[in-house]
Amino acid sequence: MKNRVKAIRHSFAGDSVIDFKGFMLRKYSVTLFVSTCDLKKWPILTRLVATYEYHFVWVTKYRYKVLTGDVALRVRELVRQTCEIFEIKILKGVVRQDHVPILVSAPPHMAPGEIMRRIKGRSSSKLFEEFPMLKKRYWGRHFWARGYFCVTVGQMTEEMVKQYLEHHFEPNPSDNFRTES
C-alpha cells in the first residue's frame, strides 16, 4: 500500500461569520476526496497527482520542406533538450519535412501555449544561428508558422495518436522521437 492513496480527506469547519456584500455565511465545511489510484503511473507533485498529455502539431513558415538531413536531426535534438529542461516527457514524435507532430506528457503547471512558446522559440533561434542558409529562406527570423494544433489525449484516444504517428516512423523501435527522410 506504499504507492497507493486510499482517501485523502481535508476538511475544516468554522463558526466565524463571513460578510460578503450582504451575504452572511455561517458554519462552512469543505471536504476533498481523492479516490484510490496507482501513483506509479502519475508524477507526484505537491498536493497534486496528475498527468496531462497533449498532441501538438506545428509547421514551418510557408510549409517549406526544410526539415531534412542535419536540420531535421538538430530540430529533434533541440525539442528533446527543451522538453527535458521543462520536465516534459516525449511519448512519441516525428520530424516530418514541413511539420512536427508530437505526443507529450507535461506537468500541470505548464499551459499548452507556454510549452509551444518554449519549444518553437528556442529551436527557431538556435536553427538560425547554426544554419545560415535558413536566413535566406526565412528573411523575417520566423522559422515556424504562427499557430499550432493541440488536442488533449482525453479527447482523442492515446491509441489513435500513436497509430497516426506510427506509420511515419523509421524501422528503429527503440527510438520514440525520430526524423523522416
Description:
- The chain is of the alpha+beta class.
- It folds into 2 domains: 40 residues, no CATH class; 132 residues, 2-Layer Sandwich (Alpha-Beta Plaits).
- Helices cover 28% and strands 29% of the residues.
- The protein has 4 helices and 13 strands.
- The protein has a 5-stranded mixed beta sheet with strand order 12-9-11-10-13, with helices on both faces. A two-stranded antiparallel sheet has the order 1-6. It has a two-stranded antiparallel sheet with strand order 2-5.
- α1 crosses α2.
- GO terms for molecular function: DNA binding; transposase activity.
- One of its GO terms (biological process) is DNA transposition.
- Pfam families: Y1_Tnp.
Number of domains: 2
The biggest beta sheet is recorded as: 5 strands, mixed
What is the CATH topology classification name of the largest domain? Alpha-Beta Plaits
User: Which CATH architecture of the largest domain would you pick?
Assistant: 2-Layer Sandwich
Topology order in helix (H) and strand (E) letters? EEEEEEEEEHEEHHEHE
What is the secondary structure topology, with strand pairs?
Layout: E1 4-5, E2 10-13, E3 18-20, E4 23-25, E5 29-32, E6 37-38, E7 44-45, E8 48-49, E9 52-59, H1 69-85, E10 89-95, E11 99-106, H2 112-130, H3 133-137, E12 149-152, H4 158-166, E13 177-179
Parallel strand pairs: 10-13
Antiparallel strand pairs: 1-6, 2-5, 3-4, 7-8, 9-11, 9-12, 10-11
Keywords:
181 residues, alpha+beta, Alpha-Beta Plaits, five-stranded mixed beta sheet, two-stranded antiparallel ribbon, 13 strands, 28% helix, globular, disordered N terminus
